[in-house]
Structures are given as structure tokens and as C-alpha cells.
Amino acid sequence: MIAVKTKKHGIDFYRVWFADRPFNKPGVIAYHQASFCPKKYDEFDTLLTDITREPEQIKGDFAKNCRYKVNRAEREDVQIRFLDNEQITDDEIETFLSFFKTFWESKGNSFDRADEVRRDLKDYRDAGALTFAIATVKGVDAVYHTYVYDEKRARLLHSASLYRLMDDEESDSRNLIGMANRYLHYADMLHFKEKGLKTYDWGGAGRGEDVINITEFKESFGGVPEKTYDFEEAKGFKANAFKILVKLLDDALL
């Protein structure tokens, strides 16, 4: 379990990941992927890969075409590097945000969450729970993955690549970046395995029309479905008073 604390208006706010029991400190608590739930919650579906096994056993769960692309990328000019916690400077975070903005806009979307993502990444880093994974293709950083993790599980937060910016859909560079993305996921699993973690969490497996292609990509690596719960609760007088005040203000603005 990870508990990341911030303070606003004299109230403690916690983001708690992977909880298997209630978090017993006063404040406003946002649970992410808890294994228990209250009466009101949002379900979260994801896929999990067991990384306690030997590397070839992990790779053995991959679909044939996926495994081929991972093996191919290992033989190509794809370099992998990892940054953990204190290695992730503020400048590294800004570099990622610029990369992610380029990626997001290449999909035809505007990226207006930079401040929120920056805050979260800094909080996770300062809590000792953040990893950046980067694949370099032909000397250019072409794929980024970011993770939040605890002592057992690493959870994918962001995955971004430059392949959409390649001019020719069939170009060698575009195909190689796609292979590098798959290879990086596999390398990430081994990185967290070396840290003693047990589970690789794919960060969501929705079935909606807008995400089904991403889910099918994740499913090509194998993995076991898991359902968890997101919800928020307030503990203590100040936290409950704050929640009531926010609700009253929201109702007044309707």
C-alpha cells in the first residue's frame, strides 16, 4: 500500500493505492484500486502479470506475434534506461511532460492536465514510489512509461510513444518504435522483478470503444483480470466538515 500525503486548508489529503484495509488516519482519503469497497464506489478493471517467475516463463504468456516483436526489438538498436525516485529530477519531469504533451497532441487531443500530472509525479517521487522507463530508438527517446509502485506491485500510469509522428505508416522507424514499446514493457517487468516486486499492473483494461484497442494490446502480453475499487472518504471532524462545505458550494452553483 502507498499513502501519499498533501495538506490544503489545514486538512490532510491522502492518495492511497492498493489498500487491502481501511486507512486509519484523519483526513480526506482518495482510494485507488482498493481491494475492498464501501457502498459508493467506482469499479476499476485491470490486468495483472505475475513477475515472480523466470523471464522466459513471463515471456511465454505473450501472444506469438507479441513475443516475436519483443525478441526482434532486443536485437535492434533499442536502448532501455530506468530512473527511480531521487534520480527523477524536476528537469526530468519537465522533459517527460513535454514528451507526453507531444504524444497526446499527436492523437488530436489537447493536453491541459500538465499541472495535475506534475504534482502527482513529484508527490510519488518524494514518497519513493515513482519510476520512469525510457526506450531510445536510433539515438532518440521514443517511448516513455511511468509507474507508481509499492513493495509488491508496480502500476503503469502513463505510456507514450512517438510512432504516430512517423510520416510513413510502414516505415522502419514507426515499426521499430512499436516493437520498442513492447520490449520496454517486458524490460519494465524484469526491472520490478529485480526490485523484489511480485505483480505488474497494466493500469486499466476498459472495454469502451475509445480504449478497446489499448486493452487488446495489453491482453497480448497475457495477464489475469482483476477488479478493484476507487472511492473517497473523510475521517475526522475537519475532513467531514470540509466535504460538507464543498457539497454545499457545489449545490449552490447548480
Report on this model:
- There is one protein chain.
- The protein is α+β, with helices and mostly antiparallel strands.
- It folds into two domains: 2-43 and 229-253, no CATH class; 44-227, Aminopeptidase (3-Layer(aba) Sandwich).
- It has seven helices and ten strands.
- The protein has helices spanning 55-60, 64-75, 90-106, 114-126, 172-194, 212-219, 237-253; strands spanning 2-8, 11-17, 27-34, 42-50, 78-84, 130-137, 140-149, 153-161, 199-201, 224-235.
- A ten-stranded mixed sheet has the order 1-2-3-10-4-9-8-7-6-5.
- Helix 5 (172-194) links the parallel strand 8 and strand 9 (199-201).
- The longest helix has 23 residues, at 172-194.
- The model has no long low-confidence stretch (mean pLDDT 93).
By CATH, the topology of the largest domain is: Aminopeptidase
CATH superfamily label of the largest domain: Gcn5-related N-acetyltransferase (GNAT)
Strand order in the largest sheet: 1-2-3-10-4-9-8-7-6-5
Oligomer: single chain
Distance between the termini: 37 Å
Level of helix content?
25-40%
Structural class: alpha+beta
Shape summary: globular
Highest-level CATH class of the largest domain = Alpha Beta
Element order: H for helix, E for strand:
EEEEHHEHHEEEHEHEH
